[in-house]
Structure formats: C-alpha cells, structure tokens
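Q: Give me a backbone?
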Amino acid sequence: MRVFIHGGIPGITPYASGSHIWGKQDGLMVEVSGQTVDAMTQSVRKAIEGKGKCHLVGHDLGGLLAFNLAIEAPQLVAAVTAVASVAAAPTGDGVPDITLAHPPKPLWSRESQRWALERVSYSHHHIDDAVLDGCVKAAARQATLDPDEFVPSLMKAKSRLYEVCRTDGIKAPCQVIWGSHDPLGTFDHGLWLFRGLAQKQRVSQFHVINRAGALPFREEPEAFHHLVTAFSEGSS
C-alpha cells in the first residue's frame, strides 16, 4: 500500500497543507497531527499499523516523517519516497529562503494561500478551486505550532536521520524526487539528501521532474505517478 504524507507546517507556512494537497493519488492519505516531529510521526504510525509494510510517500516535512518512521519502525515500511523534502535535506548555512516571506494578510485566507501556492510553483495551472477549498478547510482546523517546541524537534529528527545514514543506514529502499525549479530547495539540496541516503542503502534513486516547483505531484502528475509506481513495484 502507498501512504501519502503531506508536508507544510501547520500554522507557520502561508498555505494550509493536508491530504487535499496531493490531488488524485492511488493510496491512503494521512492527516498529520501533533506539535513536534515525534508526535507527528506517531500520528502516521497509528494510521498505518495493521496494514502491512507500506510505501511511504512524503512531501517536504512528510518526507522527514517517513524517514523518522522508517528508523523507528522498519517493520512497517517497505520503501520511502521523499518529495521536495526541504525538511529532510541538509540545511546548510545559507541565507534564509525568502520565497514565502511577507505573505498578504490575513494569513491563511484564500487569497493568501493562493499567493503561497503560486510562489512555490513553476506554473499556476494546477491551482484550482478544489485545492484552494481544501486549504481553506485545513486552515480552519489546524492548530498553530509553537516554534520554540517544533523547531528543536525538527533539528533533532534531521540530525538523527543523517547519523543513521552514516551508520546503520535506512533499512528500506529510498527515492528522492525533486522539482527542477523548486524555489524552496535547490537541486543540490535534493542531491545531497540522496547522497546521504545512498551511503548505506544501495537501493536509492534520485529523480528530477522538469517544469515543476515544490509541488511536482500537482504540476506534473503523470511523471510523478510513473516514478512512484515504478519504485513501488521495483521495491516490492
């Protein structure tokens, strides 16, 4: 079974993410909840326990949650695909990204979320009423995270990921998918994530989807579907 784990940081990113952000996918959509990365990981674990080994497909923060779960409960994970996972990629010491700086007010309004989705995309054709409706509904139910609690948990999870990559390795096959024009994370961010994973996991792949930004599964759904399907079938 494929399990899709949405990214975005509730109450922090200008668009409200949720299962709706994936559009049409063949698999289980998990609604992430919790105030820390560990709590969010547990919400995913509860959703998939009893369903056998799953192929986890995580976008941005969802990618880090998928790796976190593969480390904690490898018996539940058949494979991991991290999609535009800036949260899992090496952070580096560069200038903070300004793509989503100074969103229009009020924050998380329909107009503000449209602005955010446009900013992270290569093209705007995928931003329709359905995804905006989903974002508005998600914004109404999301709980604002406390950065003082969330950020340390994010850094802890990321640090552990790279420690595992250098030592025991992720025990499941790993795939990294990146958009060629992702404004939130460069090609090199994705490549270095792949290189970290590939140190101890021989079944690792890195793919770039052309004409796509931070949401390649929405902008180029056919290419994305092909990569995920091929990797699932090849890893089973």
User: Anything to note?
Assistant: Residues 64 and 88 are 5 Å apart (CA to CA).
